[in-house]
């Protein structure tokens, strides 16, 4: 961000963008780095003014896009989203991919819930919005997405919201422990301690959604239950929000067993990544097999998330692109 006037021979379009002092201080939380990102991405120049910003651009199109982006940031701020360098960087990466697919940041998506910090949790791409809609309208949803697309986070956020709203009586979190061959008996501790390392990503999301005291209470009353795939056999899960994470690591027999646990009043979300599996070469993934087999069943929804919807650090998408090139 600059503090002097630009060369009039270069700039053909200029517009004043008013900012209140508080929002201006939010944008400058990382020094001028947020403005540097916006300048570099849209090819504009931003100047500090007492009453806000002045944006200069060689084209009217670039000027309009940069102003639209600032409007999105302002709206997110008003909704309580914490604005920082990482958020802006990720939004710009998704904005870049929107030139070919409609997966950019959208401000009109409905609020799912607020996390324990009071910040809004909502879909950030059209693909994520499709997941929310599918969960609302279907009792079984398959979500296939590459690493970092927020598929597990969104599923856990939805489950938490449904539990808090008493739309279900409990959350059941399931993950295959492929590395231990589903034989967890040799590990120390009780069932929770044995399976904890495999469910850590889901725990991290739960800890972001709920205060620790409430999370402990839900665990103690068994309203949030953890279970390895091997312990699901013979059960019928009623009035539950059931999430199977890392589903690509299930065998066909395991997937069949799991899917038939669905009981009355329950939602079942099967989350996996078709680009990776830890099964040995001779085993067919139950995740891929089930999606193909059940594709004709209209009541079962299937949602695909793509690498241009990565929600982690902006560099993750670049890393995925690089590996995809050599593969």
Walk me through the structure.
- This protein is of the alpha/beta class.
- The protein has 2 domains: 13-78, Ribosomal Protein S8, Chain: A, domain 1 (2-Layer Sandwich), CATH 3.30.1370; 113-326, P-loop containing nucleotide triphosphate hydrolases (Rossmann fold, 3-Layer(aba) Sandwich), CATH 3.40.50.300.
- The chain is 41% helix and 17% strand.
- It has 11 helices and 11 strands.
- The chain has helices at 21-27, 33-42, 60-78, 85-97, 126-137, 151-164, 191-209, 212-220, 252-259, 286-294, 314-326, and strands at 13-18, 45-49, 52-57, 113-114, 120-121, 140-145, 170-175, 224-228, 240-244, 267-272, 300-305.
- Strands 8-7-9-10-6-11 form a 6-stranded parallel sheet, sandwiched between helices.
- A hairpin with a 5-residue loop joins β4 and β5.
- The protein is elongated and about 70 Å long.
């Amino acid at each position: 961000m600059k503090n002097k006037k630009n060369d009039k021979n270069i700039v053909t379009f200029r517009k004043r963008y008013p900012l209140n002092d508080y929002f201006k201080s939010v944008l400058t939380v990382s020094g001028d780095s947020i403005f540097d990102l916006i300048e570099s991405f849209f090819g504009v120049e931003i100047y500090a003014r007492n009453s806000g910003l002045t944006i200069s651009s060689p084209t009217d199109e670039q000027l309009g896009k940069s102003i639209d982006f600032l409007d999105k940031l302002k709206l997110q701020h008003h909704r309580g989203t914490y604005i920082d360098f990482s958020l802006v960087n990720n939004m710009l990466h998704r904005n870049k991919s929107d030139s070919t697919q409609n997966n950019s940041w959208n401000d009109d998506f409905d609020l799912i819930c607020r996390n324990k910090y009071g910040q809004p949790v909502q879909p950030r791409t059209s693909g994520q919005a499709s997941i929310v809609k599918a969960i609302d309208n279907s009792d079984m949803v398959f979500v296939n997405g590459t690493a970092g697309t927020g598929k597990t986070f969104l599923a856990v956020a939805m489950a938490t919201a449904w539990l808090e709203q008493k739309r279900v009586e409990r959350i059941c979190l399931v993950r295959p422990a492929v590395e231990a061959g589903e034989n967890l008996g040799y590990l120390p501790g009780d069932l929770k301690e044995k399976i904890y390392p495999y469910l850590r990503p889901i725990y991290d999301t739960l800890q972001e959604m709920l205060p620790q005291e409430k999370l402990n209470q839900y665990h103690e009353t068994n309203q949030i239950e953890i279970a390895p795939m091997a312990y699901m056999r013979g059960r019928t899960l009623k009035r539950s929000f059931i999430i199977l994470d890392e589903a690509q690591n299930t065998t066909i027999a395991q997937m069949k067993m799991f899917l038939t646990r669905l009981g009355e009043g329950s939602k079942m979300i099967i989350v996996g990544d078709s680009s990776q599996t830890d099964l040995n070469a001779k085993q067919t993934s139950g995740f891929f097999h089930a999606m193909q087999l059940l594709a004709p069943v209209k009541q079962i929804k299937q949602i695909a998330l793509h690498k241009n919807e990565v929600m982690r650090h902006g560099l993750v998408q670049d890393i995925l692109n690089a590996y995809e090139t050599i593969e």
